[in-house]
Every structure is written in C-alpha cells, then in structure tokens.
Design goal:
DHBP synthase, Rossmann fold, 15 strands, globular, binds threonylcarbamoyladenylate, binds magnesium ion
C-alpha cells in the first residue's frame, strides 16, 4: 500500500476525516486509531462492509464485533434494558477503554453480533476516532486491525504492514496511548462479568458503581477468551523474574538461539504501551525466542499477563 494512503493528522485532520467518511459510505474499510489499539472499521449500518471485516481478518463470523459510538447519548438507539449501574460506569469511564455488553435493539444488525441478542459497545477516547464518529450519524464497528489470532496493531504502520491495500485508508492517530484492548464487561446477566481484562480494572469498576463483578465462567464468548490469541510468529516463553529471564537467556544463547527479553521492571504503563510493538519487532528481526518477564497480577498487569499467556499458548502447542 502506498504511503500516501496513511492520512496524517498534521493540520489536515478534517480533509482526512472527509475522505474516511466517503470511503465508509462506499462500503470500504478504514484503519481507525483508538487509545487502546487500532481498529478495522466499517459503518455499523452496512452489512456488506461488515462482512468484509470478517473476510479481511480471516475471523470466524461467530466472533462478534465491538460497536463504537460518539457518546453515551447514542446508547438507547443501540441497546435496551440498560441496568442503572451501567449509566454510572459510562459516565465515569466513557470515553475510555471500557466495552459494555448489553441487550441489543433492532437497530443492530446480525452481522455485528453473529446473531446474538447482545451487543458490545464502547466510546473510544481518541480525538481522531471521536472526530470521525461525530461526523457519521451512525456507529463504527471495529475489531482490532490484525489478522485473527495475531498481534494487535498499535500504530498506523502496523495496520498497513498487516492488511495492506485491504484497507482503503488508515487514519494516523499516532501510537496508541494504552496499547492493550479494552476491558469487556458483560452486563446482560444477573451479576456483571468481566470477559476480557484491560486498562480499567475490576476494582475500579466495582468501586465506581458499587457493584460486585464476577470473572468469566470460562465459557469462550469473547475471542480474547480463547486460549491462543495475540500471538507472534516466534516462540514466546514466560518467566516471573528478571533473574529467571537472564538464566533462560544464557541457556538459549548457548544453543545459538537469537533471543529478546521483554522486561519493564514493574512499569505497567510502559509495558502495555510497548508490548505489541515489541512482539512485532522481534518477528521482523528474526528472533527465535522472546522471553517475557510477567508483571504483577493487578490492574493493568492482569491485562498484560492475560495477553502474554494467550500469546505464549501458541508456542507450547
Ligand atoms: O480496545 C478494543 O476493544 C479494540 C478497539 C479497536 O476498540 N477492539 C477490539 O476488538 O479489541 P476485537 O474484535 O479484537 O475484540 C472484541 C471482543 C471479542 O473478543 C468479541 O468476542 C467480544 O469483544 N464481543 C463482541 N461482542 C460481544 C458480545 N455481544 N458478547 C460477548 N463478547 C462480545
Ligand atoms: Mg482482536
């Protein structure tokens, strides 16, 4: 894909948004920056374009998509029987990295949800995404803009590297602030349940809305809940400490393996921000084995551990 198809927001934001709107209305797909990862976006009211998302990603059609809206005020068009605590959560965390699963309205087409009666919704916290959403009088459905099961993109260049000319254009919103996907909270059950960990933790959600949240019951309803996901091509090994990483690195080097160590010494924000870019870079530079030091298992660390565990599952089978 030629470079000029990445639209950069250097004062030409409104021209780029105009072009994106035109492409979307022509049923083409675009690369959408968000604060979590880049999405592969289509208009939510265009089943034909939505079907293309599944083809381009090679994603099974029973893995539903997240609907992105410009604001909480649009929620009633797309979701119904919204529990009152959801209002509190949306007020506190939207725009932001929280996706909420709710009962859908007839406005939501079957292509988005894989014919489920529920829909996953979030308002992204990114000025380019919001500028586009505010122009379209519609929602945008957008999974992460990578091939199914592979590493998510956190820059416009990653999207082009993965999907090439299968996206009509990529809006360049810079490197994603957070770097891992949103927290998914299923609010369609008698008590809310986390389906995927993200930047917003269970504790934050519970204390904001005075609710009690369950972890997923293991039923694989979110693709991020599959055992293998987010995987680089090279092998990924997980260790708990820097000392373990050094020891294992010495062993592998003695076997002539090219290795890369991922260790952020407790800085969870930097870890999340750089995780996917580092996995991609290791693949590009011909690394045989990545050794990742696991972060602590709280807050954002829980999301990072989840992604690393799933990415490494591909290495052990
Ligand atoms: O941060 C994010 O959430 C990014 C950005 C682009 O917004 N999007 C993202 O999309 O990670 P994707 O498609 O890679 O992951 C969406 C997850 C999948 O695991 C899917 O199964 C789940 O959301 N999901 C979507 N609709 C659902 C529903 N109705 N019930 C349960 N899970 C649902
Ligand atoms: Mg994804």
């Amino acid at each position: 894909m030629p470079d000029h198809d990445i639209q950069i927001q250097d004062g030409r934001l409104s021209a780029s948004i105009d072009l994106a709107v035109r492409y979307l209305r022509d049923d083409l797909l675009i690369g959408l920056p968000t604060e979590t990862v880049y999405g592969l976006a289509a208009l939510a009211s265009r089943p034909k374009a939505i079907s293309k998302i599944f083809q381009v990603k090679a994603r099974p059609t029973n893995h539903p998509l997240i609907l992105h809206l410009a604001s909480y005020r649009q929620l009633e068009k797309w979701a119904q029987n919204v529990p009152s605590y959801v209002e509190v959560l949306c007020e506190k965390f939207w725009p932001g990295a929280l996706t909420i699963v709710l009962q859908r309205t007839p406005q939501v087409c079957d292509e988005i949800t894989g014919a489920r009666k529920t829909v996953a919704i979030r308002v992204p916290n990114h000025q380019v995404a919001l500028a586009l959403l505010n122009r379209i009088d519609d929602g945008l459905v957008a999974p992460s803009a990578n091939r199914f099961g592979k590493v998510s993109p956190t820059s416009a260049k990653h999207v082009v590297d993965d999907l090439g000319d299968q996206v009509a254009l990529v809006l360049d919103g810079g490197v994603c602030d957070i770097g891992v996907e949103s927290t998914i909270l299923d609010c369609t059950r008698s008590s809310p349940q986390i389906l995927r960990h993200g930047a917003i933790s269970k504790d934050e959600l519970e204390s904001a809305a005075n609710i009690s949240i369950n972890l997923s019951d293991g039923e694989s309803r979110a693709s991020g809940m599959l055992e293998k996901h987010y995987a680089p091509n090279c092998r990924l090994e997980l260790v708990e400490t820097t000392a373990d990483a050094k020891r294992r690195a010495a062993e592998l080097v003695s076997e002539d393996q090219k290795i890369e160590i991922l260790d952020f010494f407790g800085d969870l924000i930097v870890y999340a921000n750089q995780l996917y870019a580092r996995l991609r870079q290791a693949d590009k530079s011909g690394v045989d084995v990545i050794i990742a030091v696991m972060p602590i298992n709280t807050g954002l660390g829980e999301a990072i551990r989840d992604r690393l565990t799933k990415a490494s599952a591909a290495s052990s089978s």
